[in-house]
Amino acid sequence: MAITGTQNPLLGETTCGSLLQQLQLIWDEVGESDEDRDKMLLQLEQECLDVYKRKVDQAAKSRAHLLQTLADSKIELSRLLSSLGEKNYVGIPDKSTGTIKEQLDAIAPLLEHLWQQKEERMKVFTDVQSQIQKIRAEISGNLDVIEKAGPPTVDEEDLSLKKSDDFQSQLQELQKEKSDRLHKVLDFVSTVHDLCAVLGMDFYSTVTEVHPSLNDSVGLQSKSISNDTLSQLAKTVATLKEDKKQRLQKLQELAQQLFDLWNLMDTPREEQSFFDHVTCNISSAVDEVTVPGALALDLIEQAEVEVERLDQLKASKMKEIALKKQTELEEIYGRAHIEIDTKAAREKIMTLIDSGNIEPSELLIDMDNQILKAKEEALSRKEILEKVDKWMSACEEESWLEDYNQDENRYNSSRGAHVNLKRAEKARILVNKIPALVDTLVAKIRAWEEDRGITFSYDGVPLLAMLDEYAMLRHDREEAKRRMRDQKRFHEQLNTEQETLFGSRPSPSRPLGSKKVVGPRANGSAANGTPSRRLSLQSGGSGARSTTKDGKRDNNRPAAPVNYVAIAKEDAASHVSGSEPGSSSP
Fold first, then answer.
1. Across the strands, what pairs with 553?
2. 313: number of CA atoms within 13 Å, CB side?
3. Which residues pair with 531 in a beta bridge?
């Protein structure tokens, strides 16, 4: 068996052919037999076959490994694409294009990119799920348990963008819920702070009892927002608001008691000002009280002590207070011209206080009710009394006018004559209104009496009877004037007839007398010679009228000689006392 081999001149290397030639030369020199040569060549050929076989097996194994690697890469590619949710990924190489290594080289960068993308997605998912887990723990109040459990487990089989968006949506909803809860917590904490300030309570101890994280030293994002915290804060706020409401109600009651006691005892404003911080909220609503310390317990205790002190002081000053109210009651009745037995009323008050059979506060309340009724009674009489005042003023002017008309020197150019002349003109206008004024007054009095079922008395005298007497006196006066005018005309006619028969002759001279002074008569006599009786008014009444010598009215004058009014009043009083033993109440 011959093996031929040549040396490659281009490579300049030793080949199998050249070595075989050297081997044959050696064999020729040695003289090896052909049989030995064939055996050695067969051995060489077998060894070459074994080497080729090993190389082929190695190549086959390498190919199988590459194929397996390619298959695994394709499987990994498919898994990564599925995990990342990339159904239509651009850039995937054709499976049948190129050799195995070319296919591996084509798929390797894609795998590396997808692995990197997967790692990034894993980080995003881990971060988002950690935030979700933490916020849920904050809401549930189990933050310590979650921290011990460690980071959340990420599902590597589903890292798609859709899944990521779902987690992001959950996170945003939870973040919004956390923000809303945090705002609620801060609102509650702010409310607790304001309420504690008004109530004079320690804010930090109150709020940290709910949860330690609610202290100002804790960061905003670290504050508890759990359901339990919100519930406890709501209960705390409700409790503080109820305390505020009760304290305000208590303080307002104390303030009202202070005002009542101050009013009873006429406490000076300077002394009252010491408790302005108590009384300033007497009519305030709960939400309007915001001043720090306005409802503190020590302030309420201070007000209670002051009320107790004033109560003790009130008992010692009760007589003075009661008599003061009685004086006020008498003044109201006096201004309304209503007669009361003041002496008996004062004796009764002293007896009640000394006996101790009535509480001082009840006595004052009863007197306040009497004062209130007296004011109502006075108010109901006000319109009539104003017209009575006008009527008396008109009657005064009427009396003055009569005196003025009887003065023979009224037209002389003496001092003040022009003033009296002007007053006379006004007095005539006013006197002409008296009948209409009396009619109106009578109508109002009758309406008042029908409405209340009692007689309208003026200083103890029925006013209608007084007006009736006045009307009768006025009528008598008018009749007397008419008779005087008739008599005067008769004498004038008689004188005229005598002058016709006997010629004119001087009339007998009038006897000289003292001049009459215009104004109120010193003796108070009326125009017709009837003595005038003065109208006596009760204290606090409308006031009487008089006329100064210059014809002007004096606002502070005593009871004027209102002739017909005084006569009518006293005649009516005597008539009533004669026919009715008991005086009528106003």
1. 547
2. 13
3. 525
